[in-house]
Amino acid sequence: MFHLHFRVALVVLLVAVAAACGRGSQPSGEGGGALITLDGSSTVFPIAEAVAEEYGKANPDIRTPTVGISGTGGGFQKFCRGETDISNASRPIRPAEIEACGKAGIEYIELPIAYDGLAIVVNPGNTWATEITVAELKTLWAPEAQGKVTRWNQVRGSWPDREIHLFGAGVDSGTYDYFTEATVGQEGASRGDFTSSEDDNVIVQGVSSDGLALGFLPLAYVEQNRSRLTLVPVDDGKPDNGAGPITPSADTVRGGTYQPLSRPLFVYVSRKAADRPEVQQFVEMFFSRDDLVREVGYIELTPPIYELARKHFADRRVGTAFGEGGSQVGMTLEALLARER
Amino acid sequence: MSGTLAGGGAAARRRLLDLTFQALALAILFLALAALGALVADVWADGASRLSWDFLTGFPSRRAENAGIWHALTGSIFVILVTGALAVPVGVGAAIYLEEYGTRSLSARIIEINITNLAAVPSIIYGLLGLGLFVRMLGMGRSVLAGASTLALLVLPVVILSTREALRAVPPSIREGSYALGATKWQTIWYQVLPVALPGILTGTILALSRAIGETAPLLTIGALTFVAFAPDSIWSPFTVLPIQIFNWVSRPQAEFQVNAAAGILVLLALLLTMNAAAIWLRDRYQKKLT
Q: Domains of chain A (ranges plus CATH)?
């Protein structure tokens, strides 16, 4: 009686395994079906997710595109192996990645889709830090500051002689890369003695509960926690793009005056995938549905830039406008896009 | 007289020591249970209001109130089923060989040491192996099969070790009785030893799979996705699992997503409890049958 049960169980298992092997080794996603696959930056994820969701609703007969979070670098790794159709990036493609894509014969169309701003925040109880300059941010965050710049009055003489507690994004994030490039002047270089987290909600929590805290955060997180954080206007010392300290907002980011802590976000579409009609339809939604960008907490591009991006896509203009690669600070998107490549 | 007094004192001391230890052990047990209880109560308070049929059968969304968990729930169940289908036959087979056939050979001893070591390897390493071997070399892509194969490797050592324990616990008299009746080694294993060991094997297997269902790191490494708006329909389908969806919700700026995350945790806990309950039920069922 017992071994009958056992045999039945074994047969079921074998059938399951056989079924598993029987379908041949056709990898899903790429190639075969109509499925559109995206991967890359966690910053761009909410936008890609919103567009994919809306696309799925509008096209119930096609499988809704899938979106992964491998980080900008991890996304490009997969993209340049031909494993994804579209790569989400919170910074332009880097030389090493350009090379990897080139070797694999993957051509790509670079499309800006939104702006993201990085905000400098302090505790609402902080009465003194009503503005900060980029030079002061550099003094505070440079690698040399580690263990030395530990009090507010070391950053600016008029600020109190009290300890300063720093909070920021984890060193593996694109947010950290961009912040260090924009303030310290070198991507990935900063002091190490700050509270870092890959989860930005931890930083919100930290700054809102510590009266001596200063931190940097993507704007979307500030929007959601307005009452718990105070924004610090940033002065880049360059009067030609807005004089004096500028408070981050949709207008100052889009207008290019909140510098250098605002950045464009991109999607990179594989040239091969761009020939598929469903991909064309999907990419078009990045340009036409800028309301989705605002809804998930980011800042939409201006209409002329969307128009330019749309044209680049229609022309299948491959390559990057960021010849030197990596994060580019302080150049307007119009100027960059118009650049020959 | 003084001797008896001293003896009484020593006995009292021993009794006191005994009681102290008992109280201490009880306190530690309560501490552990209280921590667990507080965690569950906290998650329940946050997430219970979000639990609904719509939440269970819904797909992911940028709007927290529309977002559901069906894709991740089915993904988790599917991945675990395939993991079991891959890990159990291989694991039990390996354990039978090591325990019944190859106990004395040098190679078996080397394999044994390696399996024990493998049980302690961090799960992310299995993720990297899965990415290189299953996703790329064997061309499985970022599919349910690739994820399940990776998790199967991860739990294999645990399945092998617990199966060996179960086989070792089978009384020698059963084997000897079988041999005495003229049964071959294979007949003895198949008709006598395995049925007796089955409850133990089942318990170990379900515990191993319970561990696998909570794993995130190896699946993220092999490229499990975050936004998948459909339930996986074949082993080649892209997928996501509950822990990945929960992590994604926790890291969102909007507070409503935190509620979704709490509700997602409750769903994951319920799934785990169901699996463990199934293990206990199966074990009791077979134990009763055999005695």
A: 26-114+263-340 (3.40.190.10), 117-254 (3.40.190.10)
Check B62 against A50: CB less than 8 A apart.
yes
pLDDT by residue (tens digit) across B83-104?
Answer: 999 999 999 999 998 888 876 7
CA distance A274 to chain B (A): 21
In terms of CA atoms, which chain A residue is nearest residue B148? Answer: A20
How confident is the model over A171-223, as pLDDT tens digits? 877 788 889 989 998 888 899 999 988 788 889 999 999 999 999 998 888 88
Q: Which residues of B touch A20 (CB under 8 A)?
A: 82, 85-86, 145, 235
Nearest in space to A63 (alpha carbons), one of B228, B197, B150, B253 = B228
Q: What's this model's pTM, rounded to 2 decimal places?
A: 0.81
The candidate with the shortest Cα–Cα distance to A74, out of A59, A89, A63, A54, is A89
Q: Which residue has the higher pLDDT, A1 or B264?
A: B264
Q: Is the pLDDT of residue A23 over 50?
A: no
Nearest-Cα residue of chain A relative to residue B59: A53
Angle at which helices B70-96 and B144-168 pack, to 10 degrees?
40
The reply to whether omega before A260 is within 30° of 0 (cis) is yes
Identify the H or E element spanning B6.
helix B2-47
The rounded mean pLDDT for chain A is 84
Chains A, B: CB contacts within 8 A come to 125
Q: How far is B106 from chain A (nearest CA, A)?
A: 31
Beta bridge partners of A215: A121, A167
Return the minimum-mean-pLDDT range out of A85-94, A119-128, A195-204, B1-10: B1-10
Nearest to A63 among B230, B234, B254 (CB): B230
Cβ pair B176, B260 in contact under 8 A = no
Interchain contact A57–B (C-beta under 8 A): no
Kindly report, residue by residue over B114-150, the tens digit of the pLDDT. Answer: 888 888 888 889 999 999 999 888 988 889 999 999 9
Of B198, B234, B255, the CB nearest to A23: B234
Contact by Cβ (8 Å): B214, B83 = no
Distance from CA of B229 to the nearest CA of A (A): 6
ipTM: 0.77
Number of H helices, E strands in chain A: 14, 11
